[in-house]
Design brief:
The protein is mainly α. The chain has a domain of 52 residues. The chain has six helices and no strands. Helix 1 packs antiparallel against helix 3. The chain is rod-shaped.
Length: 192
Amino acid sequence: MNMSEIETIRPFRSVKEAAAAFNQRDSTLAISSPCTPASMTGSGSGQKSTPVYYEVSVLDSIKKLEMELVEMRQELALMKKRRSEMEIAVAGMNAQFHRSLSKMAEIEAAKAAQRSAIREERRWEEENEYWPCFGDALSISDMDMGVERRMETKLQKKKPVVPLIGRIFSKKKSSSEGIDYSYPESIYSVLS
């Protein structure tokens, strides 16, 4: 690298550092090429003197750096603003997510309670399937009579088939002969 060049690969940390680097370059040039009085005053050919040219270029570079610094500060402020907006949005989404989770947990708990209640009700119905209802249980004697009545109706409904057929045939004969071959009513109650 030549002594007159400044390393521009890495950015300057501050304006002072940039000014110091350019001043160092200026002083290096002054040492490596001593100024002659003719070059300082100019030869009349319209050339600028070297110290004035370097001062102008240093000032231009400093102005550029200051402008870049202002732009970077604006970008940094914008980035900070976006970051804070993003944090607020993420916090809001996180809160909404937790609210949704709690609602889902409440719904699941309600469903589980409902399933448990239905299961308990079915179990209770299965256990109490053969119990009489509350209205029937008011009077035990009435309940016993109700059971007996049910049994009587079942007994009355069951009649043997053979005596019925015999009765049909016997009525035809009895109408012709006047004899009744039908079985007495007491036989039906004994057979069933």
